[in-house]
Amino acid sequence: MRRDESSLIRWLLIALALGFLGLFLVLPLAAVLAQALGKGTGAYFAALTQPDAWAAIRLTLLVAAIAVPVNIGFGLVASWAIAKFDFRGKSLLISLIDLPFSVSPVISGLVFVLLFGLQGWFGETLRDHNIRVLFAVPGIVLATMFVTFPFVARELIPLMEEQGREEEEAAIVLGAGGFKTFLTVTLPNVKWGLLHGVLLCNARAMGEFGAVSVVSGHIRGLTNTMPLHVEILYNEYDFVGAFAVASLLALLALLTLVAKSALEWRLRDEISALRQS
Amino acid sequence: MPKNNPAKPWRVIPGFGLTLGLTLGWLSVLVLIPLTSLFVMASGLSLDQWLAILADTRVQAAFRLSFGGALVAALINAAAGLLVAWVLVRYDFPGRRLIDAMVDLPFALPTAVAGIALAALYAPQGWIGQLIEPLGIKVAFTPLGAIVAMVFVGLPFVVRTVQPVLEDIDSEVEEAAASLGAGRWQTFTRVILPTLAPALLTGFALAFARAVGEYGSVIFIAGNFPGLSEIVPLLIVVRLEQYDYVGATAIAAIMLVASFVLLLAINGLQRWNRDRLSRGAA
Amino acid sequence: MTSDWSRDAMRLVLATALVVGAAMALAAAIPGAGAAESRTLLNVSYDPTRELYQDLNAAFVKSWKAKTGEDLRINQSHGGSGKQARAVIDGLEADVVTLALAYDIDAIAQRGQIDPKWQSRLAANSAPYTSTIVFLVRKGNPKAIKDWDDLVRPGVSVITPNPKTSGGARWNYLAAWGYELNRSNNDAAKAEAFTTALFHNVPVLDTGARGSTTTFTQRGIGDVLIAWENEAILALKEVPGQFEIVAPPLSILAEPPVAVVDKVVDRHGTRALAESYLSFLYTPEAQEIIARNHYRPRDPDIAKKHAAEFPPVRLFTIDDVFGGWGKAQTAHFADGGIFDRIIVNAKK
Known about the structure:
The structure holds 3 protein chains of 3 kinds. By secondary structure, chain A is mostly helical. Chain A has 13 helices and no strands. Chain A has a single domain, classed as MetI-like fold, CATH 1.10.3720. In chain B, α3 packs parallel to α8. Chain A: The complex is composed of two ATP-binding proteins (CysA), two transmembrane proteins (CysT and CysW) and a solute-binding protein (CysP).
């Protein structure tokens, strides 16, 4: 029975919002796709099946496969500590967890060079033991984990705080173990937040450019991730190839995001159906 | 909502020591120790050298563009993000769910790709550029271009923080306001906006924080003129190109402190607001 | 209850550690797998040489196989010259570096990874090919650009990358400076005024040479691109029919040098291989490939064969005019150097 805007204003607002999104979201995406498909779908798929492109795709998936689970683990642990307990310095701790988010990618890459570079703290020791961190996969994984560090945690902390502690306390008092409580009470409550955090974390892990560019070494077929490969192809005048790989990244992300919101909407519909009955 | 009494010495929920220990340990290894290396490196500078860096007009101009541009971009995102969230939550129209999903796209697109795409769009020959260039508006390769890129990367944040709060607003409050004779606009400014304010502020701050450090997309569209359209991260890169590690880390350290203070302020604000709300409810 | 919790938690931590460990091992194994089969060499190079080394590497691998029967894999890394030099300094294990300017290899040598006398180890200043700086203009040369002083005319829009971040841009800048120095009988003040006027006409400073080429050819910005000769010829081939090359009567002799990274090859045991790779660049076969990729070959016979593509330009060297890269770098491109002054005055 809410008194709503007149349909004129309603459509005006929709038009405004869509106009803004069109300008800043749809057009850039369309520009990428137009370039990628500029020479037909044959060239598009040929670009994606080049060995170097394939190596970059594999490396990107591998890096995400390591960085995302680690961040899920950290996010769950950290949000449990922060949301379920009171302690001094909590605000400071949250700010520190957020920090990688606002650090410029240039700096995120640089700090690992300062640590593991040959002129850095551990560089010579690592080289003497023949361990490669920088300009190899471990360095890329580290930089990616740094950049995506806050995403799961910052999605979960407010959610868990909002849900309070009563349910967990009740479960514990009733004799459930801490881990069981976490699995059966906390986790189901935050699963949508967790899913959203994981998707964001994954999208960022696969798309990170600046920080990874500093630590990768750009060795073709070995240490180029998809975003770096895009840059290389672009610099080789292979615009179709560059935007084909870029569009693959965008489409991967878009598909997961659509799947996620479809799930969420469905759940919401179920809930409202339950409420009405 | 009854709050756990902080003074209570005995905790029902187990695992505090373990989870906090793991959190602090992992945070130190992955974030704090690497960032410390920055400050150690930068500490090689004398006070005079620090002052020289701060007094450099080129450094000042870069900080003005990075922070000023990010501020403008975050303001645009706050207004547009609120509008988008409102439309997505309140109205039904074809393609709504697809658009809802697309909002996170700037997150997934590598920043360099975003920069190339935006530069291609806004260049004089581009789809948008050829429309606005005759009007005398130059976006690509000007400071305005940097702001466009910053709006793009910060776009998801306001929408995503405002959206859930907007969904939770009790329609009864609005109905009550309406039945008391408030117009739609009055209801919005007096009832809805104050409720949204904290989320809006958080989203604004997040968009700002993200835009300040942005590099990949901005360098493709900004023009990169020293003192004019050069951002701080580029200044760091320029120093590195001259093998001036200390100078680069010094600027990085200043940036890092600025963003940390910013985050502390955001989180403090959020906490203060939550306390205020819970006190109001009690 | 507490022990229950911690046992479960420990299990979780262990499982996570196991998964991460396995994934890490897999990650380490993937690059290793390719490397184990055959000997590898890593060539860390600058941006525009991708096509060149693709061809050169294929030829060298073939000739090495014919000579020794050994399979070889040459990995390539490309990026801005300074950025690449920094990566090697920071531990990128390059067996050989092939960069845009001697200054960048000097920077690696200063950190002890290359013998300080590297430049005299190979013929011709360790530069197996040369290039020069030319102009790329739009079809029909509508602004009638013929020489350097046409670039400072009002209304001419000039594209060049940022000398602070691009090796190629430093050659561009020094070529312009050298031109005016020559014209004004070594008047440094005039050279600075000339270069300032030139940068006054520059609307975009891209961070790399390829970035500038893209800005000029793809974005349609500018009337003239100052570029490597090889870069300009390549752009002509990539986008046919839209551009023309104008070679100024006087320009700079660019000598992109190559060097074996001593510390790395000694650890890898690849010195002999790396040295034969670099000497290969001077062979007629490689010189022919170099010429076909639009770089000026050192070999006089090959140069004669391709003379049509490389118009005669009077060339001055950086050693003659600027006293070498070290001096040029400190005077012009260091912080507080002449370029910093020029860029401020150019936008006044």
